[in-house]
C-alpha cells in the first residue's frame, strides 16, 4: 500500500475544511479551488477543524508579528493548504514561503495553481515570474516542492533550491504529519533543524492522550484505512510531544490539548460558530478535543514567551 493512504489524508482534511468554510466557520477564499467534492460532516468534526485552524493561526500570527518581514515559513506536509494566499489577502509580507509534500501531492497542487488564475495571479503579483516543473513550483518568495520528508538530504537540497536562509527567523508548521513518519527519521529531521537554524518556531498539531478506549477507536479507524502511524509513540501525552523537541536540540517546548486551545478562542467567536450547527453530544466533542493537541518548540529566545491565553 505504501504512502497512498497517508496522501489520502490530505484529501480528507481538505474536504473537511471546505465543508466547514462553506458553513461559515471561518473564511477561506481559496480552498474551493483545490477541493470540489464535499460530504456533510458531523458538527463536532467541523468544530474540531475550526479549533485546529484558529489554534494554529494564533501562533502563526504571533510569529509573524514578532519576526516581521524577515520571517520565513516552511510548511511540512502542506497538502492543499491555502495559508500562503490567505496571508497575501491580509497584506502580510514575509521573506519566503515554502511548501513541502510528497511529489504526487505537489504535482496535483502545481496543476491546480496553473489552472486557476486567481491562485497564479497572487503569486505573480509579488514576483512576476513563476517556474513550474512536473512536481515543483518556484517563484521569488513562494515555492511548492515535492520531497519525501524522511530523506534529510533531499529535504536540505529542496530548502537550498528555495533559497531558505538559516539565520532568518523560520516557522515550521506540521499538521498531522509527524505521526506518519518513523520516530528516528523525525528525530533526525528535528536535530537537523535545531542545529541548522539559529532562531525559529515549530508548530505541531497532532494526536495525543491516545492510551484509552477513545484513542484505540481513533487509531483503529486510521489503521483500517491503511495508515501505519509509524510515529504514534510520541502521541502518548503532552509530555511525550514536548520531550520530542527537547531531546532534539530545541531550547524549549510547550503543549496544550484542544480543550485548552478551544477555550482560548475569543468568546464572541466561539458563540458565533456554536450557533452554526446544533451539537447533540457535547461529551463527544470534549473527547475529540482531549485527543488532539498543539505543541510548539522554539530555537533561540525570541519565541519562548508564546502562550495561549485561557
Explain what you see:
- This protein is an alpha/beta fold and 310 residues long.
- The protein has a single domain (4-299), classed as Rossmann fold, CATH 3.40.50.
- It has helices at residues 4-23, 31-34, 43-67, 83-89, 103-115, 117-127, 152-161, 183-196, 213-224, 238-246, 258-264, 267-274, 282-290, and strands at residues 72-76, 96-101, 130-132, 137-139, 142-146, 170-175, 200-207, 252-257, 292-299.
- A 9-stranded mixed sheet has the order 3-4-5-2-1-6-7-9-8, with helices on both faces.
- Helix 4 links the parallel strand 1 (72-76) and strand 2.
- Helix 3 (43-67) crosses helix 11 (258-264), helix 3 packs across helix 13 (282-290) and helix 5 crosses helix 6 (117-127).
- It is globular.
- The N and C termini lie far apart (43 Å).
Quickly list its features:
single chain; 310 residues; alpha/beta; Rossmann fold; 9 strands; globular
Secondary structure: elements and pairs:
Elements (H helix, E strand, L loop, with lengths): L3 H20 L7 H4 L8 H25 L4 E5 L6 H7 L6 E6 L1 H13 L1 H11 L2 E3 L4 E3 L2 E5 L5 H10 L8 E6 L7 H14 L3 E8 L5 H12 L13 H9 L5 E6 H7 L2 H8 L7 H9 L1 E8 L11
Parallel strand pairs: 1-2, 1-6, 2-5, 6-7
Antiparallel strand pairs: 3-4, 4-5, 7-9, 8-9
Helix pairs in contact: 1-3, 3-11, 3-13, 5-6
